[in-house]
Amino acid sequence: MMTGKNDKNEKVVPFQPQGPFSLEAKKRWNKIPKWAQSRILEHVWCVECRVGVSIILETAEMQDDDLLLRGKCKTCGHEVCRLVEPEAD
Ligand SMILES: [Zn+2]
User: Fold this and answer.
1) Which domain holds residue 78?
2) What pLDDT was estimated at residue 61?
């Protein structure tokens, strides 16, 4: 049951498949195997941490032929993004 409260809690959710994807981005994302999806989401370069970090995904959209994932570093909250290039085949 819903409590009726509408608080916007700051949750740490690395992957929210329904919300942030544009239609085109979602189509593209769904072509990526699950194991590769999690590898992408868990290895985003953070300039603050200077390591590959998990992304808290906020938006995903197509930029030309690339899928652009934007969000925040799960470790420090700094903005990060990840470009997923089309498969070369
Ligand atoms: Zn960071």
Assistant:
1) 23-84
2) 95
